[in-house]
Amino acid sequence: MDNSKTASRQAARKRRLLINRDFTLLWSAQAISKLGDVVFDYTLVFWIATSIAREQRWAPLAVSGIFVATALPTLGAGPIAGVFVDRWQKRPTMLLMDALRAILILLLLLATGILPPPFQLPPFGQLVAIYLVVVLATICAQFFDPSRLALVGDMVTEPDRAHATGLLEVTRNLAVVVGPPVAALLYFRFGALWALIINALSFVVSFLALLAVHASPSGVRPQPEQQTHFLREFVSGLHFLAGNRVLMTILVTSVVGMFGFSAFSALGIFFALQNLHIPASLSSFLSLAFGVGAMMGAFLAGLFAQRIGVARTFWLSILLLSGLLLVYARQTSFAPAVVVSFLFGIPYAAIGVASDPLLLHVTPRTLIGRTFSVIITIVMLSILVSTTLVGYLASMVLHDFHARFLGLAFGPIDTIFTVGSLFGLLAGMYAMVNLWGLHLAREEDGLNPEITR
Description:
The protein has 453 residues and is an all-alpha fold. It has helices spanning 2-18, 21-52, 59-87, 90-108, 123-155, 158-190, 192-211, 230-243, 245-266, 268-274, 283-308, 310-329, 334-362, 368-397, 412-435; strands spanning 403-405, 408-410.
């Protein structure tokens, strides 16, 4: 009897850790494909900078083209993809996108020089091939990502969704930390060819993991008579988003708070040089500390967000993130800055862990694709605008700015960080007011934690 109880408790703990079989497969697929994505991105940077555009004046422009090739499809194809994601079944859509991305990356092998000399592409042709593959792969991601979110909603009941999102965020941040050195090792040891092959294989493994998922094919799917005109479906999604208090809170806080995080990302190297007075080579430790903090934040938020309250976790994390950015702006020494950068990553990841369960809580399954895609598109646009703005302020408007206030010295970079933190605090208070009293279902509320189909 005792043995059976012990086995039952162990099985329950295992279920709580991995939630269920289908989610474990989905989580494994993302862990592999996300690492492949980061390795792919950095491989392209190394390939362009050290080979295709080596010692060319236009090399920085060529590398920045990768970011443009990623941003433009997100802005252009994202909202369109959301309508079709809501029409189509989710797992087949994800399988198709994984297969297409594997094929696209394998086709890029033709640009690595494996063909005989008469058929090898010149540098300009290689760049065109790279940008084209990045554009098409990014379009595939616009279909894959909202489908994955909807599938998580199908696989995982509300009491476990914060935990599920936490696991997904841990693997995403782990890929961001581990991916760059893995890409460097593969590229400089074996060349672009094998780095691309490994990335293509990551999508093959993701495809096989998704193929093993026992998702119900009879999930909620719009019937043909429900599928009206594309524009009407798109507009109905916008109306739902605009009329939902929770979704608009997520959107507004993301856009307003993005100014501070864009400053932290874009101007981090200049803060290290001008405020911390360290060589550029040490600035990577600040990014590493942030990445490790983000992994820990995702793990902790996944464990405790449901107990704290998912909505409360969301706005508390925004306030804490903004407060830490204010503290970071006042740092003048390397070691304390590393500690604050690590702490900064914790609430940053917690915001992501809390936002998806909130979206799933208030969004009908037939609108998840449109809702998610529009939010991501607007957030990407805000990133572009914020990054451009902070770069312009640091380069032009505040380049020679120096002032003292309340006995504190202010320069251009820390001033931008300070203003960004104030925007973040306003966003956090806005979220606190709008989400106050919102509670998601918990297991003790009587919901069956097992997946229902």
